[in-house]
Amino acid sequence: MGFATKKTKRWELQQLTWTFVSIVMFIPLPVHLFPFVMLAQAKKSKIKSWYATAIAFMLLEFALFASFIYFVGAMSQGLLLTFGGYVSAYIVGNGLLLNRAKPYLQRLELAEIHPLRWIPTASSSGKLELTEATLDTPQVFIERMLYWRREITNASMQRDIDKIIHLFQLLESKDKIEADKFLVRHSTVVSVLMKYDEIENSKLKNAVTTDSKRKLEEVLAQAAVAIEQEVTNQFKAGILDVSAETDVYIQTLKNRNLLKD
Predict the structure, then answer these.
(1) Is 228 within 8 Å of 167 (Cβ atoms)?
(2) Cβ atoms within 10 A of the Cβ of 216, count?
(3) pTM for the whole structure
C-alpha cells in the first residue's frame, strides 16, 4: 500500500513523475516547468483552485522571462530582482507541488473508480464533507468509503470496504436507478465507519470500546454480505430476462423451420 492511497508505492511514484522532473529542472528554459505540471494536475484532479494557481504562476513566469529579456546585457538591480523572482517562484511552486502530492494521488485513485466532478479546493472532499449525513451522489459515496478506508487500520474492515465499493460499481454500471436507491438504503454504512474511526481515535481500551468496535465490525461484515446478495439478485433478474427472451427467440426459429428440435 502507498503512503496516500491503497495503490502501490510504485503507482504513486509514477503519478508523481512530472513533479520530480519539475524539481530537478531548476534552470528555467525559458520558464520553469512547475506551472505546466500544476496545470496538468489541476485538469486531472479537477480542482478549480489548483487551476487558478497554475495560471497565476504561468503568468508570473512569463513576466519574469520578459523582465529577463528587458534587463539582460548588463548587471543591474532589475536583473538581480528578476533572478530572485525566478528562484522564489521555483521554491514556492515546487513546494506547492510536493504539498499537493497526497490529495492529488487520492483524487487519481478516486478517478479510477468513478468519474470526477470539479470541486473548488482539495479540502472540499475532506473530512468535513465526508461527515455530512446525506449521500448526494455516487461519487460522494465512493469518496467517503475511500476516505474511511484510509483512516481505519482494521484489515478485515478494509477488505469489507473494498468489497462494498466494488459491488457498488457493479450495481451502478448495471442500473443507475438502483444505484441511487442503494445510496438511500445503505447510508448507515458510512455512519458505521465514522463511529468506528471515532472509537479508534479515542485511544480508549476497555470492555465498552472493545465490544463496540466488535459490533461495528460485525455490522459492516453483514452489510457487505447483504449488499453482495442484493447485487447478485440484480444480475439474476437480468439473466432471467435474457433467458426468457432467448427462449422466445429459439421457439420463433423452430416455428419458422430454421431450427430442428
Answers:
(1) yes
(2) 21
(3) 0.67
